[in-house]
Amino acid sequence: MKRLFIPLTLALIASPALATPKDALVYQIASATASVEPVQAVVTYDVLPVQQMFEGLYLDNFGKYEPLLATSSTLSKDGKTTTFNLRKNVKFHDGSTMNCADAEYSMRRTLLVGSETSLASQIRANMLNISGFTPEVKKTYTFAKLSSMVKCNAAGQLVLTLDRNVPSLLDSIAQIYIVPMKALVAGGDWSGTAKDFDAFIGKDVANSTLAQKPIGTGAYQFVARDPSRFVLKGFDGYWGGAPALKNVILQKVDSDTARVLALQKGDADIALIPDRDTLAKLKGVPSVKVYEDLPTQNLTSVLLFNQSIKDDKLLPAGQLAENNIPANFFSDIHVRKAFAAMFDTKTFVKDGLQGFGLARNTSLPTNNWADDKTLKPPAYNLKTAEAEMKLAFGGKLWATGFTVPLSTFGGSGLSVVVAGIFKQNIEALNPKFHASVSTLELSAANASLLGGKLAFSALTWGGADPDTNLRGLFSATGILAPATNIKDPKMEQMMDTARDTVGQNARKPLYKTLMTYLNAQTYAVPLPQPLVFAATVSSLKGYENFNKTNLFKVLSK
After folding, report:
1. Where is the signal peptide (predicted)?
2. What is the DSSP string of 417-473?
3. Structural domains in the chain?
C-alpha cells in the first residue's frame, strides 16, 4: 500500500499542473501552513491541517457539540465537574491505542504549555479564567492543582473538575486535541510530572516534536511538507473508517488568477476565490461548482451605539445644537430606536453584500443554540423613525436638529454602505438633521472603537456560547464596554443568571427573555450575516458538510 502511495504523493508535489486523481484532494490556498502544534495553532491554514490529523473529545458541528473521542459526558448539578466516557479501540497514527492516560496528559498539557497568543492560552482564559501566566498566577498554579483538576478515575473515565461552572466548556473541549503521551515524552516534551512542570508552564511549543512529526487520531496522517505544500494521507486505522479521499495536498498559490485557472483545468479541487466578482465568472463553467450562500459559523454582525462618546468636539451631555450632538446622544432610547428604524437592511444586503446576506433577528450567530427565530428585531420604517425622533430628548431634538459623525474605514466597503444608508435617511427625515462622513484607517478605527470615540459602528463579533457573544457586546465588563458604555443593572443580572444556570435546556428560555429585552432596548441592531462563497470542481461531493465541520473526511468524488 505504501509503495503505491509514495509515487502518487511525489507526483503531486512535483507537478502542480497534474490533474487530480479520483481519490485525491488538492486544495489551493493563499498562505503557507506555519505550525501544526495543536495547542498553538490559531491561524486558518494552521488550524485546517490540525483538524484533519488531531481530534478532541467533542466535535463542534456547526454549533452542535457531538461526541468524538468521548462517547458521552455527564455534568454535576453545580456544573463544576464533567465526567467523560472515552471511545474504545481508537488508534493513533503510530499504531498505539488511545487510553485515558493519553486524554489526561493531553488536557493537562493544553492547560500548561502554549504562548500568550496560542489556542491553549484562549482555552485557559475560558476554562480557568487565566489571561496569562503572571508571577502571581504561577504562585498558585501548581502541578498538584492541575493534576487534581484533570484525572482518570478507576473506571477509566476522564474527570474534569473546575472552580466554577463554565457555560462554554464544550467549545474549549472540542479544541483540546488528544495526543499520544508516550511518543511526546520520548521526544523530549513535558514528562507529565512535577519534575519539569515549571520549565513548560506557558512555553511556546510551536516548533515542538509534535509540530515536526504530528501524531493524532484523525482521519488523515502527516506525510510531508515544504514551504508551499502540506501533504496528508488517509489513515487506514481510523476508528471511523478510512476516508474516501486517500491523499490531500494543501498547496500555497499566491496568484488569484493561477488558483482560478487551476480550478477550471481540474488541477485543483478547491481553490480560494478572492471575491464574488471572480466567483461570478466561474458560474456556468461545466467543470466548476459554485457555492454562493453557505452559512457562517459562530459569527454575528451588529451595529453598536455608544451611549457616552469620548470625543471632546461633541457637546456636553444633554445639550443640543443643529451642527453637533451631545456626548450622550445614544443614551436616549428614542434616538436608538429611530436610528434602528432608519437602517434599510434590504439596501445593505443588495449594495453591501451583493444580495447574499442572511436576515437576523437577534445579536446571536444564526447557528447558535440559543438563537430564537420567533423574536422581532428592529425593522426599517421611516415613519417609526420620525415618531421616535419627535420623542427624543423630551421632544426637543426634532426642533433643534443635530449633525451626527459617521465614520467609514479604509478597505471596508461595508462601512461605506452603512454610512451611505444612514446619511440618506437621516437627512431625508428632517431638514435640520445632518450627517458628516469621514474615513479612518482600519487600525485607527479599531483604536477609536475601543477608546470609545466612535458614535456608533458596525462590526463582526464571534463566540460559540451565547454568554461569550452577548457579554462581549453588551456587558459593562465585556471587551466592547468602552465602545458602548451601556450601564444597565437589570440586563447584567439577566445575563449573569443565564450564564450561571447549568444546562442548555435550562438556559435557553433565559436567553430568550434576555434577547427580547435587548431588542426592546435597542442597544444594537443585528445586521444581515454575510454568506460564505466558494468554488470547487463539480465532481467533489460534500462541500456543504465541510463548510460546517472543516473536515476533509466528509468529502468524496
Report:
1. 1-19
2. HHHHHHHHHHHHH-TTEEEEEEEE-HHHHHHHHHTT--SEEEEEEE-SSHHHHHHHH
3. 2-265+537-554 (3.40.190.10), 299-530 (3.10.105.10)
